[in-house]
Amino acid sequence: MRKHVLDSHAHTIASGHAYHTIQEMAQAAADKGLELLALTEHAMAMPGTCHEFYFLNLRVLPRTMCGIEVLFGTEANIMDYDGTLDMSERLLKRMDVVIASMHIPCVRPGTMAENTRAYIKAVENPLVNIIGHPDDGRYPVDYDELAAAAKEHHVLLELNNSSLNPEGSRTDPVPNDIKMLEACRKYGTQIIVNSDSHCAFDVGDHQFADRLIEETGFPEHLIVNRSVEEYKKYINRFTLLK
Question: How far is CA 7 from CA 36, 108, 115, 124, 158, in A?
Answer without folding.
Answer: 7, 28, 26, 24, 11
